[in-house]
Design brief:
- By secondary structure, the protein is an alpha/beta fold.
- The chain contains 19 helices and 11 strands.
- The strands form 4 sheets. The protein has a 5-stranded parallel β-sheet, sandwiched between helices. A two-stranded antiparallel ribbon has the order 6-7. The chain has a two-stranded antiparallel ribbon with strand order 8-9.
- The protein is globular.
- The N terminus is likely disordered.
Length: 483
């Protein structure tokens, strides 16, 4: 994302002036091509798996009807008309593909061609369509960002810590092809928060900046403003732009599934927050999700289990698996399984080490972890660095003591640190991975971990679990924050 001036970065071009038509057209064409390619792969893979290379499929269905159903549901999900982050985009694509496949099943039954339509073909079509459309969007987004085409110019109002978070979020998400042209703030230039982003004036000069740059998208990132000042700022700016967004003073609250309603006559707004995992139906869906993925994972990873068990046994004496008592759902203790990473006289070594090292004693009391832990074996250090020591927890998931994704499993001594948030923790099973693992792991503060656990419980969704599992892979490969 470039931070150069608007006039330099967005010349008076045909594409820029017709951006609202150019991008949806490009995406629609590429999505249609990806659906055709998905049909091709599904057709031939089905033939290879069944040994029957041919089955009749009307050309009108393959070339028009089926792709059109996908495109209609994609459009209904807003992926051609809304600017959204890549993970949100993937969720909408997944939902669109699922609805399209459901519509195709209904279509083939109503048109009386179900007998000649392969069910395996339809299932493979869902998989290939999801993968190819998602992948093509990722590639196109990178190409557009690299070429500087299609980016939406945005004026930032505010330059505090919240503005810094907004900028970081845009930089980290390839789907948000925004070009922040500069910022306005009454406090003047603030390079410590926004770097070399151009300073364009004060809040009072925002309208002049909008008229000069012709920017049509504005983001107010100043949640510390008083309600009166924020209200006045919004009413002043809104008539001059197409889109106006603002960051409310709700940072950290569970607003992932927020619903907004209004009382028209009284000009009041209601924001409805949901505690998702408080609902039994959602917990049931999460359990099914855990069982399916964990069963597959145990089968696929069984050779790695055997290899690691052999290495642990050869490295040091003692058991292969270590069961540590942790706090689970409803506050009940359970044996959290791990590959043994410490020597058998670990407790004795810890006491001696803490007695001789006051700084380590403070670190242990604050975090219940040590960066330089004398108890860890040679193989144990590798297992911890790669998080492979946590693989046996898959069996905790199978027997219903843990979840694939959830709050970090804690020990009894940590309960007071959770304060009132412990109720959120008790509501669900702890997870092998979760919010804190993908946001710095051991590099995060304890208070941040508690807040992340609470946020996850209240904002849970299947797609959130998928996103966190995927991001966990990247964090583990980078060894970020692990010790």
């Amino acid at each position: 994302m470039s931070h150069t001036a608007f006039s330099e970065n967005h010349p008076d071009s045909f594409i820029h002036h017709h951006l609202n038509y150019f991008l949806p057209t490009i995406y629609t064409i590429t999505d249609w091509l990806m659906i055709l390619l998905a049909e091709f792969f599904a057709y031939h893979l089905r033939g290879a798996l069944t040994g029957n290379a041919h089955f009749h499929m009307p050309w009108l269905n393959l070339w028009v009807a089926f792709p059109l159903l996908f495109l209609l549901f994609f459009r209904q999900g807003g992926i051609y008309t809304k600017h959204m982050g890549y993970w949100k985009l993937m969720e909408c694509i997944c939902r669109g593909c699922t609805y399209a496949i459901g519509a195709i099943v209904v279509f083939v039954y109503l048109s009386h061609i179900s007998a000649s339509t392969s069910r395996l073909f339809v299932g493979l079509l869902w998989i290939f369509a999801l993968v190819l459309v998602t992948l093509s969007r990722y590639i196109i987004a990178h190409i557009l960002n690299w070429a500087g085409v299609g980016s939406v110019p945005v004026l930032l109002v505010g330059a505090g810590k919240t503005a810094n978070l907004v900028l970081q979020g845009i930089r980290d998400d390839v789907g948000l092809n925004f070009n922040i042209i500069g910022y306005v703030d009454d406090a003047g230039p603030q390079e410590e928060n926004v770097g070399n982003l151009p300073y364009l004036g004060t809040f009072a000069q925002a309208v002049d900046v909008i008229e000069k740059t012709q920017v049509q998208d504005v983001c107010i990132a100043a949640p510390g403003l008083s309600p009166e000042k924020l209200n006045r700022l919004i009413h002043t700016i809104q008539p001059h732009v197409r889109n106006l967004a603002f960051v409310p003073d709700l940072i950290g609250l569970p607003v992932n599934g927020i619903e907004v309603e209004s009382l028209f006559n009284e000009r009041l707004m209601f924001m409805s927050l949901k505690n998702n995992l408080a609902r039994p139906y959602n917990r049931f869906i999460k359990r099914v999700f855990d069982l399916v993925l964990t069963t597959i994972g145990v089968i696929v990873l069984s050779p790695i289990f055997l290899l690691l068990a052999l290495l642990i046994k050869l490295d040091s004496r003692g058991p292969i698996i270590f069961a540590h008592q942790r706090i689970g759902k409803d506050g009940k203790l359970f044996p959290c399984l791990k590959f043994r990473t410490m020597c058998v006289d670990a407790d004795k070594k810890l006491k001696e080490y803490l007695a001789e090292n006051p700084e380590a004693q403070k670190e242990w009391e604050a975090e219940f972890k040590l960066k330089d832990d004398p108890r860890v074996t040679r193989v144990g250090r590798v297992l911890r660095k790669t998080s492979l020591d946590e693989l046996p927890q898959l069996f905790n998931v199978l027997i219903g003591q843990m979840s694939l994704v959830g709050p970090r499993p804690i020990v009894t001594a940590e309960i007071p640190k959770y304060g009132p948030y412990i109720k959120d923790f008790y509501m669900v099973h702890p997870g092998i991975t979760g919010m804190w693992q993908v946001n710095g792991r051991s590099d995060t503060t304890y208070d941040e971990r508690v807040q992340m656990d609470s946020w996850y419980v209240r904002n849970w969704g299947v797609w959130l679990d998928i996103m966190l599992l995927w991001r966990t892979i990247g964090v583990v490969l980078q060894h970020k924050g692990a010790y």
